[in-house]
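Fold this sequence, please.
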Amino acid sequence: MCELLGMSANVPTDIIFSFTGLIERSGNTGPHKDGWGIAFYEAKACRTFHDPEAACDSAIANLVKNYPIKSNIVISHIRLANRGKINLANTHPFTRELWGCHVTFAHNGQLKGIKNKSLRGYLPVGTTDSEHAFCWLLGEIKHAFPQRPATGKLKRFIKARCDELKDMGIFNMLMSDSKFLFAYCSTKLCWITRRAPFDLAKLIDKDMSVDFGQETTSKDIVSVVATMPLTENETWNHMHTGELICLSKGEIK
């Protein structure tokens, strides 16, 4: 299956360290070589990069890895294709507009019968079950809430719809509406929050380490969500089936 990576931070932060570990799994230490993508939020809009090639061999991924784009919210995905051809249209994350903001979505898993669900206004560009699920979910949200609702109400609504999708197969997902990062676990998802006092972190998939104490201030809070832990010397929190977390400025809300 695919792998997910997300970040929420209270100050604009680059994701070079975590992204470097993730893309090793796209053709080197892992089989997820059927495309990759990443979205960096800047206020209500996001800057996105996609490539249907393996990230470990991608000149675009190499640019992202070496260019410290700073953002408060990031979503990334590496793909192991099981539904839909390997092409740009089927490469996550997917983006649509809602409430005057870019909404970005990435999914891990398969959903049997998802294309039988009627869509409300949003249509897929590609042929994946993931994008159909995103269009369905976003249409349900927009139909229920023409204007942005209170956070608790939105969170409960998204969880109920994610539970419905989980019952159709495997539905691990990351989604952001530019204000929050939502992470839903069907089978496998974990997270870690880094705050002062910061320490040294070592990647699992590459001989690379970072002393975050030298790269941050005492006020910085950064949370990372991933399919599998990316570091070998830190304690990651593994989410439970049916669990949804909502992150804002690095904190779980």
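Residues 3-252 form a domain with the Glutamine Phosphoribosylpyrophosphate, subunit 1, domain 1 fold (CATH 3.60.20.10). The mean pLDDT is 95.
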